Amino acid sequence: MSWTRRYGALIRNAWLIDLQYRASIVLWMLWGVTEPTIALGIWWAIAGDGRIGGYARADFARYFFAVMLVNQLTIAWDSWYLDRWIREGELNFRLARPLHPAHEAVADNIAYKARTASVILVVWLIAAAAWPAVRLPLAPGRWAVTAVAVLLAAAMRFFISFTTGLLAFWTTRATAIMELHAGVSLFLAGRIAPLSLLPPAVAGVAGVLWFRYMLAFPVELLTGAVYGSDAVLRGLAGQIVWLGVWIAAYRVVWTRGIRKYGAVGG
Amino acid sequence: MAPVVTAERLTKTFRVKVRDPGMKGAVQALVRPRNRDVQAVRDVTFAIEPGEIVAFLGPNGAGKTTTLKMLTGLLYPTSGRAEVAGFTPWTGGPECKRRLALVLGNRQQLVWDLPPEETFLLNRAIYDIGEAEYRERLAELVGLLELTEVLEKPVRQLSLGERMKCELAASLLHRPPLLFLDEPTLGLDVTAQEAIRRFLIQYRDRHGATVLLTSHYMQDVTALASRVLMINRGRLLYDGALGALVARITRMKRIELVLGGGDGGRVDAETLAAFGEVKSFRFPNAVLEVPRDEAPATSARILAALPVADLSIEDPPIEEVIRRAFAQGLEEEGT
């Protein structure tokens, strides 16, 4: 099986490189934990002993632990890599190989996610042992649906990041566009607050566009905020539609960009 | 034999943004961006037979690397066509890429933080090379390139020469019949340059590979290439043997003398100037330049008239020939 071997070798390489930089692993982990912890701290203080938009302190805790995990499982850094590959000519040798550069990016994502998410999972398990508020009910069905939603979200965020990175074929500001997207998703994807706490118009936009399906929907599935086959199927359908849209966008941008490519440097 | 690489009227035009210097220029570029078309390669046509080693010659920005990148499918041409190992390179896909290797002197595929062997293993998987073949090919490349000592050191600790050798090994594990090398000896010391040249010839002889390379070092060209493609400002100026190019550009030969004998000290520059143009004179060595077809006769006259310990007839240094060729803007008119 040459594809298993190829992916095996790519993932192995990604891990070997990671192991060279233990400090950076710790920094990335801290980054992944800090943002949801700060958001949780704020909502914890605001909620006090009451409820905000149906969320008590324990609900916020569960929500942001789920955000921490799902975000690490779905985040994609590819636009930064692609921007460098294109602007500095590192795409050249990748184009000369009989392997589409996207495969290396996918393998890097798998390697990164397996590494960071497994640590966060351990952190969560330790927290849950000591703190009942962040425990999740044992519900294999829900976990399975969540796994599918996480996979779809990861695929979609990969194509968003990869496609945005490809804009470096035309502009030197591809990463700035990705930063803008990250800024918007802070609110619209549910990273800073559950979507139900946003003004209805804003939450509506998040649900019509792809933002909710990037993060908030799988998080809500995991915490049980979304339930019932109707709501679950609607959410999954939204994910599939937007994944399709981003794959189509990727194809258009790749085919046009590669013709535009200047292959800078040697 | 059918050619393994053909280029027909290959043309690449880049659109580049232009702006005037200073704040005013920056604002103008923002409000009304201006573009200029730069023709990097114009109507380049040639064909390369299997087993040939061909060198691209030309100053920086001549279009050598752009041509190489089109032939390896990295760049789409603006017009014209090319065929490489039976494929159109930019649409040939994986099957085409398996048949070629691209080595870029200043952009490397070796994973910086890991020993080179990890890149080799990665390429084994990417090119789908069987275990036994991999072992055999790696042993051959390690032997020819003398890599035993460096396989386990992280790439960042290797010297430039060691890195280039590993780069070649990584690019040749799938044993491609076609090698495209862009400045493979760039920045290397003389020993490393020679090792690379020796290896390329051995590899060609063993596997019948076709090699197309660009280089700034004339030694690369004289040692390796049976044929040169001279390119300047995107145009192909000359396609043929190096010797024929030299004969064509320079109508002169150099007579190098070592004066000797008892009266040697009495020979002065003025005496020498009677035989030809004195390029240098520092007793007992002298270099004269004379018209090509008169070289034998002049040599005979020098031997008869002067106390000569040694005399040889040479072509002018190849660097000078090439410099002169580009300065004269040699145009190839329908060979």
3D structure, described in words:
- The complex is a heterodimer of chains A (266) and B (335).
- Chain A has 266 residues and is mostly helical.
- Chain A has one domain (3-263).
- Helix content of chain A is 77%, strand content 0%.
- Chain A contains eleven helices and no strands.
- Chain A has helices at 2-20, 22-47, 57-74, 78-87, 91-96, 101-130, 140-166, 174-188, 200-208, 211-223, 229-260.
- Chain A is globular, with a radius of gyration of 19 Å.
- Chain B has a six-stranded mixed β-sheet, with helices on both faces. A four-stranded antiparallel β-sheet of chain B has the order 11-12-10-13. In chain B, strands 2-1-4 form a three-stranded antiparallel β-sheet.
- Chain B has helices at 22-31, 64-71, 93-97, 116-126, 131-145, 160-172, 190-207, 218-224, 242-249, 269-273, 295-305, 318-328, and strands at 5-18, 34-48, 53-57, 79-84, 100-104, 178-182, 210-214, 227-232, 235-240, 252-259, 277-282, 285-291, 308-314.
- Chain B contains twelve helices and 13 strands.
- In chain B, 40% of the residues are buried.
- Chain B starts with a strand and ends in a 7-residue tail after the last helix.
- Classes of the chains: A mainly alpha (266), B alpha/beta (335).
Topology of this structure?
The complex is a heterodimer of chains A (266) and B (335).
Chain A: H1 2-20, H2 22-47, H3 57-74, H4 78-87, H5 91-96, H6 101-130, H7 140-166, H8 174-188, H9 200-208, H10 211-223, H11 229-260
Helix pairs in contact in A: 1-6, 2-3, 3-6, 3-10, 4-7, 7-8, 7-10, 7-11, 10-11
Chain B: E1 5-18, H1 22-31, E2 34-48, E3 53-57, H2 64-71, E4 79-84, H3 93-97, E5 100-104, H4 116-126, H5 131-145, H6 160-172, E6 178-182, H7 190-207, E7 210-214, H8 218-224, E8 227-232, E9 235-240, H9 242-249, E10 252-259, H10 269-273, E11 277-282, E12 285-291, H11 295-305, E13 308-314, H12 318-328
Parallel strand pairs in B: 3-7, 3-8, 5-6, 6-7
Antiparallel strand pairs in B: 1-2, 1-4, 8-9, 10-12, 10-13, 11-12
